[in-house]
Structures are given as structure tokens and as C-alpha cells.
Amino acid sequence: xxxxxxxxSIFVVMAISIVAxxxxxxxxxxxxxxxxxxxxxxxxxxxxxxxxxxTLKDAETEQRGYIITGDPQYxxxxxxxxxxxxxxxxxxxxxxxxxxxxxxxDSIATLTEEKLGELRKTVDIRKSQGFEAAxxxxxxxxxxxxxxxxxxxxxxxxxxxxxxxxxxxxSATAANAMRTAIYLGAAIINLYFLYWxxxxxxxxxxxxEEARAEANRQKDLLKVTLSSIGDCVMVTxxxxxxxxxxxxxxxxxxWTVDEAMGKPITNVFRIINxxxxxxxxxxxxxxxxxxxIVGLANHTLLIRKDGTEVPIDDSGAPVREPDGTVxxxxxxxxDFTSYKNAEKELERAKETAENANRxxxxxxxxLSHELxxxxxxxxxxxxxWDMNNSVPAELKSDVQMxxxxxxxxxxxxxxxxxxxxxxxxxxxLTLEVENVHHxxxxxxxxxxxxxxxxxxxxxxxxxxxxxxxxxxxxxVQQIFGNLLKNATKFTxxxxxxxxxxxxxxxxxxxxxxxxNGIGISQATLQRLFLPFEQGEHKLSHRYEGLGLGLAISKxxxxxxxxxxxxxxxGPGTGASMTVTFPTVAPSQQSTLMSMxxxxxxxxxxxxxxxxxxxxxGYTSQVMSRLLKMQGYDVRAAASIEEAKEFVKExxxxxxxxxxxxxxxxxxxxxxxxxKFDQTPAIALSGFGMEEDIARCTxxxxxxxxxxxxxxxxxxxxxxxxxxxx
Length: 725
Prior knowledge:
The protein has 725 residues and is of the alpha+beta class. It is built from 24 helices and 21 strands.
């Protein structure tokens, strides 16, 4: 505790004690004075009562003397006596007394006036009628009765005054005793406080001496500590002059402590900017100016005494007195050479990693393109065979096996690319207000052949009253497709899959895929949405795939602001996957599409004139045949120049464009076309990276499909993009 504060607190306590005891003594003394004053008042009242009754008796004696003797000298003082009686009575009435005494005195005043009247009357009768007449009046005892009544009432008042006097005497005695006790108590308390103050001052003085000794020990310890610390330490006074520096600071600056002592810090600690070579403000000066902790910016060099330069990092902090006054600055700094070297190495490693990552992305994009491109004509050929029913019965199972294998390879490529996008955080979403029921119906249509291939029953119960959401339709179809493919994969032949929709209590849309397949263990449920997770190890060899579908689906659902959950009672009991999205009011466009049909047109199979720009011969041939079988009027071009001539010659309803072409790219072609034609366009490419899709959108394409092209998916996209025209 601060010594002056302790002295102040002792003084305050003593002052409070003295004031308190003085106040109590004053109160007790005032009470004694009041009680003594009351005693005097009551005694004066009793004396006045005695004087009053004596004066009244004198008046009666003077009356009797005159009546008996007839001597007028008895009447000489009579009028003065009457006046004295009234004065004595008035004096008594002015005294402070109780209400009862006041009433008695009022009654006495009335009786006194009657008594004085009776005296005057008898005197007047003696004067006018003689002694006998006056004697007869006296014998009536009217005067005697009045005098007796006055005496009795005077006695009552006197009795009350005596009682009040006794009370006042007792109170005065008690107050006097209390005053004496308080005086003695106050003396004892003050003596105790004096003793306490003496002890406290002794302790404060002792503590102060110990604190001074401890401060000296701490000062020595601080000096040893600062000398032993691994960083460079310098201390200055409030003027910025050096007062201390440790050995590490001596070694780094090249100054000894004897050389630096007392010199301005700017002489010893000279710093410049590494890039501009301009002098940097000393952190000590900055601390003294701002009164707060400061640090150096990056790229600061310390110029040592011999002129060599060292990169450093430092900070300065004010040294304050207990009252907050800045008495100096402590400066801590270190050699930053190794860190700078490590930073450069890290930067080089980062550039190397980024280059490697770019090369990896380029490799993945090229690998994806080279793997996808030859798959497109194969899948298209299978689709043609299915539509023509031209495959011999004995080869159908082989064809289905080949088609399934190619679709699996394409899906594995898509999953790997999607996972790359998700990990890099560059997943592109195009949000629209969409009727989710239409998306479910579209997905069911696309995967009907897979479901029927395993002789599964697929039932939909689209019961949600609110079924519009602000989502990316393509990504939601991907999510639903993954869930339906999973249900199909893990449900044995002749099993059942049910898709239901509804609204929860908050109005959110819930879409649930339920199957009666192999089920999921509780252990697997905990890691179901992790990449490359395929459930039990023994199942991973039984069911194809990389285990990316659910991980990608969860990332997509999270990005769209929804939730996805899985439930199962265990192996052999089937499973349920539920996706939840917040709902929104339907847009005018989605309402119109609902009125027209799920594809957004009144005529889902209306004939369209399509330009197919594809340089891969097999793909062009097979895609043309397949589109024509779908009822479209198709014209194929193998180069940009040929396609531009076709566009100029006639009006097309849709452009299907490959991106990699011999005389340019599909994006360059579309930019040229967009100058004079706004025909809807769909990009068909083996390049499916996020930046590829973004470039296509920027170029003006309405949609992007990665090869190999699924004919049902293509059909759905064609309907979507042409419905707006």
C-alpha cells in the first residue's frame, strides 16, 4: 500500500472517530440541558401556582377585613391585588404544560374571575347596604365554595407538575449519566484508535522499508534477467537516452554498454527501411510520443556500429510509474536473418507448390478430356441400340455390362473433378428459384433404365405443398442422382425404392430416398459422408466406385444452405437419405413452367433445328444419328468456319458445340455468333474443370455438359434452354 495513502486513511479514521464522539457528546449534553431547563420550568410553574393562590388569598383577606371593619384602608390595595391575581394567572397560562393541565388552568381562570366578581359584589353590598347585608351574602358560602374549587384544581395542576418534575429529574440524571458514559467510552475509543494508528504507522514504515529493500532486490533481479534474456534488450530514460543494454544487444549492435550509456537511442539503434533505404522512426521515440506499445514494420534493417546491416524485428513498450507517468522505454529486438531466409524458402516452396498444383489441374483437365472424348460415341451407340432394340438377346447382358462400365468410368472422372473443386473452394453455383418436384421427376426419368435393370420398383410421393427453393438445378439433380444411384446400387434385385417429399414444421422442403437394401451400421453412419467412404471393408470390393458420391452431395447441400442426413436401423434393414432445403415463393417463370409441363413447354417433343459443331468424327456421326432418332433436325459441322457459314445460311433453334476444335475453340465461335445471333447454345466438352464451365458461361453458353454425353441428360437440358425461346 502507498505510504501517503496509509497516512491519509489513518487521519480520516481518527477524524471520523473524533467527529462521531464529539457529536454524541454534544447530543447527550443538549439532552441534559433540555432536561434541566424542563426542571426549572416545572419548578417555576409550581412557584407561580403558590404565588397565585397566595395572591388570591390576600384578595379574600382584604375583602373580609373591609366587611368586618368597614375601614376603607383595606380596599386601598384591593385593586392592585386583583391585578396581581390576573397577572399571576396569565403567567401560569403562558407556561408549557400538558393538554390536561391546560384545560384545568382554563377552568381555574374562569373560577378566578367568578371569585373576583364575588369579592367585588360583597364589597359593594358592604358599601351600600352595610355589614348585615354583606354578612348574609358571605354566609351563602358562594365565595368559600369557589375558593375550595380553585384550590382543588390548583392542587391537580400542581400534582401534575410535580409528576412531570420527577420525570424531568430522572431524565436529567439519566442523560447526565449517559453523557459521562459516552465521554468515558469516547475517551477509550480514541485511545484505542490512537494505539491502532501508532501500530499502523509503525507497520507502514516497516513495510515501506521492506518494499524499498524488495524494490532494490527486484531491480537487481530485473537487471540480471534482462542481461540473461535471449533477445536484445535496451532500456532508455524518459528523454530517450540509453540506461541499460544486455550482452546480446551489445553483440548485435556492436556497441558496448559503457559506450552506449547515456547516449541518445538514435545514435546506438539506427534503423532504415530495407526497400527504400530511408531512415525509420525509432520505436523509442514513437513510444514516448504515443505512450503505448509499438512494433516495427517488416523490412527493417539495423545498421551496426561497423556499418554492416542486419534485418531485425522489434517492439517497444513504455516503462510507467504507478501513477501512469512514463519514466522510460524498454526496447526488445532480435536478429531476423534466419527468419527472412526461411520466409524466402517458404515463398519459393509456395510458388513451387502452386506451379505443381497448376500443372496438376492442367493434367487433370487434359486427362479428363482425353478420357471422356472417346466415351461419348460409345455411349451414344449404346443409346441408339437401346432405342432401336437392335441388340440380339444373347448380347444384351454384355452390352449392358459395357455400358455400365463406361458410365461408371465417366462418373468416377466427374467425382474426382468435383472433389478437386470442393477441396479448392471454387465450386460454382448458379442459383434459381426452381420447382424441386420437377427436378425429382427429371432425375427419375434419367435413371429409370438403371432401376429397371435391377428389377426394382421405384415409387414417388411428391406431397410437399411448398416445393420451390432457391438452388442450382444442375447441382441438385446431381445430388438426387447420387442418392438414387446409391439406393439402386445397395438394393438387391426385386427390391423397392421410395422417394417422398414433405414440409417440416418450419416449412422447409424435405426429400427422402428410402430403400429396403443392405442397410448401414451405426459405425458407418458416423463417417458416411467422408470422401472415399464405402461402409464396411468387406463391401468395398463388392460394390464399385470410389465412395465420393455422398461426400460430394453433402458439400453441395451445405453450399446450397440445406442439410443432408442418413438413417438406418442397421445391416439388412434398408436406409433413408433425407435432404432439406429452405423453401421460397415460386417465381412467375416456374409457375408458368408448372402450367405448361415439367419441361417448360406445351409440346415436349416439338421439332428443333440443331447445329452440331463437333470435330471428332465418330462422336459427330453417332450424336447426329441419336439426335435425329429423337426427332430433331440435325446439321453437323466439323470446324468453326463451316459452322459460321451454316448459321449465316439458316436459322437454328439450338447450337451444340464442342470446345476443342481444329481452327479455334467453341467459345470463340459463340462469341462471333453472339454478335448477330442469340440462339441458345450448349457446350459439349471433355473439359469439365470449374474454370472451363466459367469460361463457357462468360462466352454466352446457356449450359455446359461434360462428355460422355448422357442422352437423357442432354434431352432434359435441351428442353430447359429452348423453353425460354
